[in-house]
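In the current project phase, we have settled on a layout for protein records. One protein thus recorded is set out beneath this paragraph:
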Amino acid sequence: MNNKYKAVIFDLFGTLVAIYSRPDYENVVALMASALKTPYDEFYNIWVQTSDQRTTGTFRTLEENLEFICRELKISTTGEQIAKAKEARFDYVARALKPRRNAIKILKQLKSAGYRTGLVSNCSTEPPVIWPETAFAPLIDAAIFSSTAGVRKPDPRIYLMAIEKLGVAPGECLYIGDGDSHELAGAAGVGMSPVLIQSTEEGGDVMRDMDIDDWPCPRISSLKEVLDLVK
């Protein structure tokens, strides 16, 4: 084990799994709108507007978010319609949590070498529910999701939650992320060593926040390079 680093903390979307593609994302929004009998454009607008509420846990469940949108649109819905919309969204997120090539292999190698592993993710309420059933769950020692933590990156508190759970000092942690939501600057701000991953696997039409990080730090193009960083 490297004497400096004892843990590696990863971002989720754009790092361990691919970022949502825009066509797939818009398709599932259309499915939810259809299930709820709401106009697509109106549903989509409020869905986007409530993104922060989803990622910080203001809406504790997807159902709460869907019911709020329907109230805003003054549309009555049945429990069956809500359930159908929920199913479409959960199926989509479950597919999106498919590990990137080599992701599981790299995590296993890190664990075998004695490193602690963590996750800090800005996400809605669905990933934490699905997480225990993923291939990642047994390989991540501390998984922190913004929707259950109540704060999102780059708020220092979300990084500190992971560090505390891992039982290591900030300076003993590498943070691997794709730079979305100013996450690298946030990781550096609490004393971790950030690394930008710029994968060639992403397509050109993906869902991203506009706050892409330009923090000066080491850059890698694949997860395999993480093993070199901890040597």
Summary: The first strand starts at residue 7 and ends at 10. The chain has two domains: 7-17+99-229, 22-96. The two ends are 7 Å apart (CA to CA). Residues 22-96 form one domain.
